[in-house]
Design a protein that fits this description.
By secondary structure, the protein is α/β, with parallel strands linked by helices. It has eight helices and six strands. Strands 5-2-1-6 form a four-stranded parallel sheet.
């Protein structure tokens, strides 16, 4: 049975599965105090390129401690990643129905310098939600897994925890509450439908109708 709230980790242009949770749950807790985990959606996303799927990774400064809170992780300027990511998005979605429509909304994320990964991810999430007309009730944790005014006992009983379940290391098919609805993709005739890519794929291909795709991807339990 679905609980009234869910717990998510910070994510960069998160997959459709992630945004389906933002659509489905009345309340979402954003984890700001977990230890940073490498090779997850926290600093990477997956898009559809002419050659197939392509991973984009935001480089981060190596933390002084293996137990550094995610909110303290800094973005590195190594490798001119902003330019590379923007070029990859243009190559992948320049021919999509809505890229030109949303390009001016996304470009500032690749021209402005951001210090902290968590702040960057939240700004991207807020912009994506705005463009999708999605209005989740999101609050940040005040300590690991907890929000202000909620006891640990109540949290355990009232929250579905997706911090490690929405991950490149976990197949989306293991999530019984997520059934990705197919939609038109730029390279669909070449690769077939590629499910659970970055929300950027859904937004650039479907525009405002992406909200309906999220709705239809929430599986009834």
């Amino acid at each position: 049975m679905k609980r009234p709230a869910c717990l998510l980790s910070s994510a960069y242009l998160a997959p459709v599965q992630y945004y389906a949770k933002l659509y489905a749950y009345p309340e979402v807790w954003m984890e700001a105090h977990e230890h940073y985990v490498k090779q997850t959606w926290r600093n990477r996303c997956l898009i559809a390129s002419p050659a197939g799927t392509q991973a984009l990774t935001v480089p981060v400064v190596k933390p002084d401690s293996p137990k550094c809170p995610v909110k303290d992780i800094r973005i590195s300027d190594h490798g001119n990643w902003r330019h590379l990511h923007w070029n990859a998005l243009e190559t992948a979605y320049g021919g999509s129905p809505f890229f030109e429509y949303y390009a001016d909304d996304f470009l500032p994320f690749y021209t402005r310098k951001w210090d902290f990964l968590f702040d960057f991810n939240e700004a991207v999430r807020l912009k994506v939600c705005e463009l999708l007309d999605l209005h989740p009730n999101v609050c940040q944790t005040v300590s690991y897994g907890l929000v202000e005014g909620v006891s640990p006992e109540c949290a355990a009983a009232s929250v579905d925890d997706f911090r490690d379940r929405i991950s490149p290391r976990v197949a989306w098919a293991e999530d019984a509450a997520f059934s990705p609805r197919a939609y038109w993709q730029v390279f669909g005739q070449v690769h077939g439908f590629l499910p659970n890519l970055s929300i950027a794929d859904l937004l650039f291909n479907m525009g405002p109708e992406g909200l309906l795709v999220l709705r239809d991807s929430v599986a009834a339990l």
